[in-house]
# Entry
Amino acid sequence: MALNGSHVVVLAAQEYEDLELWYPKLRLEEAGAKVIVAGMGETSYLSKHGYPVYPDAGIADLDPAAFDGVVIPGGWAPDFLRRSEAVTAFVAQVAAAGGLVAAICHGGSVLISANVVKGKRVTSVAAIRDDLRNAGAEWVDAPVVVDGSLVTSRRPADLPVFMAAALAVLEDRSHHESGARLAVDADLVAITVTDASLEYMLDMLDRMPAAKGYHQGAAPAAHSPVQILRDFASLSDPRGPLEVEPAVVVDILPTTKGYTVRGNARLQSVLEGAGVPDVRAGS
# Structure
């Protein structure tokens, strides 16, 4: 994946979660993006574990229009970031322009203060679940949730799929004017399914007591394809919540012959193991 020419801000404040700042910064730089670590005026910040980061700029000095995205790490840093009008204005303007807004763990609290979560599907650390719901978001417990250009995850263990999704959103943005389709990051796989696949999954969900909101005879159109996939994968994984890497659905795009699903390798394994018809690798 090449993001040469993309510019991304990674926000920083005191007591940031080490991995949630450094992992995104390094993954973005490896992909070719220009990364600016932005703080609120201080010359350095110590992480929760005492590791320093030295901001490249103050957020108040940056023009949101010059950036393709912003990453909000967790830890206790969001409690300070959300109080800054310069921070929330920057996040809100990037979101309004369709840029990547990626928040992990407690980073969702900044999204609340920036007023960008109403009507959005998100995830986060459970501690701010109710705050996000009260702000009008649909909160779900998943390793990564993508709603348009908004990418959210729960905790450091989710960082691989969090950044895979964030990089894919940036790739889409960088190719948008040329009409190129969304590129699939190396950490994601493309899976082709058909209407017959969705009908099979919906029929199976009808039979599962744990599948809430489904009833016999419902047509696939009564439920969004991505929700059918997520619910079916979650309830059909034989290792369930004990699985270290659960099945992840990033998004689903319609094609002339069906749908292209972007997710992880575990998702493909679960679908094939459950006997879903017309599932194949590739787009």
